[in-house]
Design brief:
By secondary structure, this protein is mostly helical. 82% of the residues lie in helices and 0% in strands. The protein has 18 helices and no strands. Helix 11 runs antiparallel to helix 12, helix 15 runs antiparallel to helix 16 and helix 17 packs antiparallel against helix 18. The longest helix has 19 residues. The radius of gyration is 26 Å and the shape is globular. The protein starts with a helix and ends with a helix.
């Protein structure tokens, strides 16, 4: 019995869900071959090309995905018109694919094209518009266009509130994104406001002991810490820590993150004994949960090294930095950019010990890595 295009497409989705990606690709390619052998329905070909693009993207084959997406867009524009909603959906997929390829200008261009089509078809206050505005803001932010993010996010918030979603998790996450953008701009007071609003909604909808609430508390505490508002940050870090410790996963990596944040906070406050205790707790937990050779362990070791370096304990700082570099070399490779940056940190410690030849060797190696 000959399977129809619909049957073959459905079979491909089943193979995709089961992780049988090679079979899925063959099935969807046979979909296209069957259509071409029959009536040559270009719309069906475009739809299957989009299916293949999703598959290739999931496999990290972004160049193959790009080719499928461009073909699908051209077909849909030709068959349906350039202002059709199906063209907009394909533009959004292409924008995401270009982001994976690191071509953010193309991501922005395609996302903006999708936004114009959606606005023309759905109106400027449809909820889908808010989704696209937020996606576009992500691309702007990744491109360093932080000032341009603000009007997009404010408009997305207005759309969601207009549609009665003012106290929803979607709005809470949007508020958190706005706060993060203000923090990057150095507008900490504005960030405080939006972090607090996001936290209030999450506490209301999820309850005071939910992990998302803990994460929002920590984000607000980080913002307070950036401003030197340590007394306000400490209780939030501690509440966040308690929530994670009481969760279903007491060894959750977020517990280690909170220990680390508290260590940095006590370090800034000059409470060295508390800082050292929390650094050790963070390091022990990360080593247990992620393994002793994980890059996150190296990150904590470097933070500890800075702490001891500023306290004049250069021998301890050098030991920690060297161990961290060894972990990064093993995890990321000896020529990774992070290894070079870590070597530059080590240089200052070695110079402080009067070990100038070793410091110069480390500096030269870092330069070679960065210039490669």
């Amino acid at each position: 019995m000959n399977l129809t295009w619909e049957d073959l497409r459905k079979a491909g989705f089943e193979e995709f869900e089961e992780g049988r990606y090679d079979d899925c690709e063959k099935t969807w390619l046979s979909c296209i071959a069957q259509v071409r052998a029959n009536d040559g329905n270009k719309i069906l070909i475009a739809t299957t090309r989009l299916d293949l693009a999703v598959l290739y993207s999931a496999l990290g084959r972004y160049e193959d995905a790009e080719k499928c997406l461009l073909e699908a867009i051209n077909i849909r524009k030709e068959q349906l018109g350039s202002e059709n909603l199906q063209v907009a959906e394909a533009y959004l997929l292409l924008a995401k694919n270009y982001a994976h390829l690191g071509n953010l200008s193309a991501s922005i261009e395609n996302c903006e094209s999708a936004l114009l089509i959606k606005e023309a078809n759905l109106g400027e206050t449809d909820m889908e518009i808010a989704d696209i505005l937020q996606e576009l803001a992500i691309y702007y932010s990744a491109s360093g266009m932080l000032e341009d993010c603000e009007p997009l996010l404010l408009r997305a918030l207005e759309v969601r509130e207009t549609n009665g979603a003012g106290r929803s998790l979607e709005v809470a996450n949007l508020l958190k994104g706005m706060a993060r953008n203000y923090r990057k701009l150095g507008r900490y007071a504005d960030a405080d406001e939006y972090y607090l609003r996001a936290l209030s909604i999450k506490e209301e909808l999820l309850g005071p002991d939910h992990e998302d609430v803990a994460e929002s508390m920590r984000s607000l505490a980080n913002n307070y810490s950036y401003q030197g508002k340590y007394e306000e940050a400490e209780p939030l870090y501690r509440k966040s820590l308690i929530i994670y410790e009481n969760s279903a996963e007491p060894n959750h990596p977020e517990v280690a993150t909170n220990y680390h944040n508290l260590a940095v906070l006590y370090y800034k406050m000059g409470q060295d004994a508390e800082a050292a205790i929390h650094y050790r707790r963070s390091l022990e937990l990360l080593s247990t949960v992620l393994g002793s050779d994980h890059p996150e362990v190296a990150s904590t070791l470097f933070s500890m090294s800075k702490f001891y370096e500023e306290r004049g304990k250069l021998d301890k700082a050098e030991t920690l930095s060297s161990l961290a570099i060894s972990i990064l070399e093993k995890a990321l490779g000896p020529d990774h950019r992070n290894v070079a940056l870590s070597l530059n940190d080590l240089v200052t410690v070695l110079e402080g010990q009067g070990r100038f030849v070793e410091a110069e060797n480390a500096r030269l190696r870092a330069e070679q890595i960065l210039s490669a």
